[in-house]
Amino acid sequence: MKTIYGIITGIILAIALLIGGIFIGKYKFSTHEIQVLEKKIYETKWKTKIVYKDNKPEFTQENFDIAVACMESSIDFKDRTENNYLFITAFDDCKENTARYEIGTKGNWKVYLAIAGLGAAAGGATIWYLTK
């Protein structure tokens, strides 16, 4: 009866160590490389409108003030992720543009397998020790 409990305990311990090794390997020791798979840049959207006359910007005080305000405004960035896409928007007081990047990540599977193997070896050693 003692060996049955030892075998069951060893199997449970081996499974726990294997699963623990996989999670520790994936979340603690893994390195991820982000790869850009596709890049798409959208059209610039203007927030302020410059007055045109005969297909040329009209030289008025209002247009001059808009140009100075655009020149002096700082550029800010915002980002968001959606599924496998990273959206980055650059904007200031006058205009904004968004770029979409399709991204993929690649983990180091050698690290996952090595730590899972160590967990399985520790579980096997525990079973061997409890059943001898």
User: Into which percentage range does the β-strand content fall?
Assistant: 25-35%
As a whole number of angstroms, the C-alpha radius of gyration is 30 Å
Roughly how many Å apart are the termini? 14 Å
- Overall body shape: rod-shaped
Q: Supply the number of helical segments.
A: 3
What is the strand tally?
A: 7
Main sheet summary: 5 strands, antiparallel
Helix percent band: 40-55%
- Give helix and strand order, one letter per element, not per position: HEEEEHEEEH
Low-confidence stretches: none
Structural class: alpha+beta
Roughly what is the average pLDDT, rounded to an integer? 78
Short descriptors:
132 residues; alpha+beta; 5-stranded antiparallel sheet; two-stranded antiparallel sheet; 3 helices; 7 strands; 31% strand; rod-shaped
What does this molecule look like?
- This protein is an alpha+beta fold.
- The protein contains three helices and seven strands.
- The protein has a domain of 57 residues.
- The strands form two sheets. Strands 1, 2, 5, 6 and 7 form a five-stranded antiparallel beta sheet that branches. A two-stranded antiparallel ribbon has the order 3-4.
- The model has no long low-confidence stretch (mean pLDDT 78).
Write the layout of secondary structure elements.
Elements: H1 2-27, E1 33-41, E2 45-46, E3 52-53, E4 56-57, H2 61-72, E5 76-82, E6 85-91, E7 95-106, H3 109-131
Antiparallel strand pairs: 1-7, 2-7, 3-4, 5-6, 6-7
Helix pairs in contact: 1-3
In short:
The protein is an alpha+beta fold.
